[in-house]
Amino acid sequence: MATDVMAAPGAVTGGKIKSELMQQRVRAARWFLLPMLIALAVVAGWPLLRSIYFSFTDASLNDIGGAEWVGFSNYLRVQVLDSGAVRYRGLLVDPAWWNAVWNTLRFAVVSVSLEAVLGMLVALVLNAEFRGRGIVRAAILIPWAIPTIVSAKMWSWMLNDQFGILNDLGMRLGLLSQKVAWTATADTAMTAVLIVDIWKTTPFMALLILAGLQMVPKDIYEAAEIDGVHPVKQFFRITLPLVRPALMVAIIFRLLDALRIFDLIYVLTPNSAATKTMSVLARENLFDFDKFAYGSAMSTLLFLIIALLTILYIWLGKVRFDGGDR
Amino acid sequence: MASIELRNIRKAFGVVEVIKGVNLEVRKGEFMVFVGPSGCGKSTLLRLISGLEDITSGEMLFDGKVVNALAPSKRGIAMVFQSYALYPHMTVYENMAFGLTLEKGHDKSDIRRRVEKAADMLQIRQYLDRLPKQLSGGQRQRVAIGRAITRDPKVFLFDEPLSNLDAALRVATRIEIAKLHESMDNVTMIYVTHDQVEAMTLADRICVLRDGHIEQVGTPMELYESPNSVFVAGFIGSPKMNFIGGERAQKLDAHTVGIRGEHITITPGEGMWQGTVIHTENLGADSYVYLEMGTEEPVVVRLDGTNSYKSGDVVNITPMADKIHRFDTAGKPIR
Prior knowledge:
The complex is a heterodimer of chains A (326) and B (335). Chain A has 326 residues and is mostly helical. Chain A is built from 13 helices and two strands. Chain A folds into two domains: 2-54, no CATH class; 95-316, MetI-like (MetI-like fold), CATH 1.10.3720. A two-stranded antiparallel ribbon of chain A has the order 1-2. Chain B has a six-stranded mixed sheet with strand order 6-7-8-3-9-10, sandwiched between helices.
């Protein structure tokens, strides 16, 4: 009976009969949306279209206006040498580019997975009741509140091979036999970047998960207590499924961020092939190497890769942005 | 089947003592109702019995064995919560089967049989594949009861299970719980409510709580006919018992006299007391007349059928002599 009553308003809006009030609301909603749509079109839509356009031209920084259409040759072109050998050129066969793609994906997957696990642990602790919880909740946000440039510079000093505190500590405690150039060595550069990124963004993850945890009703844990559900099972069978919607949304936010990581790497490990990501490489080509069109092609591919991964994630993960099934 | 004994149970949250020394025995197979105003500690007492809260001092015994430190799941209890406390991401079937699937020694067909039996008892079999959010409040409460039945408990605990339901559904579910008690006569049931009607209609015995103490324990009729205090007298019965003090009480050798609305007759000629009608309520089967006669609250007279008294009418009333309750200054009965 109750469901019948609840279904009725939905049936009216879903059908053809729209009341005057409803039409009025739709009209008002459109007006409210307009400023945002215009702003987005100007600051996001237009630059995006320009980048895509430039990627099909021979534009250079000296003469952007005189760019001429060259089709797909920034991406892939066939070159027949005098000797008759066929060579492929362009972004799609550029090893520097694929190195950057690989770096970015590795960075994104490792950092986001570790942040999700650590963020969940932190969120569970912050969700428990203990004395001084408010202060701890505020304190844990500090790494996230510090501007990336500042924290990257701070960590680069801490990781410094000559004067860094981490090398000093490692030597004193006997963990290191010699000082390590964390950010300069190819083997450790990515690890250094990952450590700093995880340190910086775990609080953000924790906060989003904490919001999800607080939506879980307390009484079902009491029911589980009476059902004799072991705390570990409570987590995997009750908590995790219920915070999954919040967790999935948090992960997608972080994934988008991680895939276009730029500032941290630019400051911490400049010019290291071991950490160079798509964004860093694109900027380098756009402005440092004066390969504006080539850099635009990179930006376009970066956009496509992120879009593809996001769509895949939402589709495979069945992510819902309406707060899940609660 | 289990008997439960509480020996000088106390519970404090920080410095606030909520249960102040409770001694009580709940017999095997009994339907015991804890009733009292909000904040009296009735829910806390139930949570102490369930093991969801730790006892500060005193002893709790199930069948003669101390269970103070025993985990809830090992006490052989099942609990129905006011808020249903269903797992929102599980279907009705999974909700009911969850506890059993985690226990060792139940094969799948055994679990299915038990869930379906409970579902049939409560007529929720057609909802087994649904999620809680797809059910109405009454259906959810039945699932919560079903989950408790599936556990096959020795003790059934209800924490205000009807207070989130609307009036009609409350009556229907109340009857179902009464039937459930009849069909599970080897299960001890403890039921918490603030509604004295639920207490009167369901209980074998009622335990009236007030401010962390037990006021009185007895069958519904014992509480109705011979309340142990002014508080119990006022709490049990609807409409509320009328209390009359001052000179009228002194004439009857009491500090306060209590008389129920149904034990007062309106006497056209002479009466013991006189009052002015200020309001009448006609309910069809019976009706209430509210009289102003200088007492703290107006005196209510319950009459069979309808009546035609109007505001301002002056009437004479006489209480039935053998139904008068006399209380001393401490609120204790004079017998």
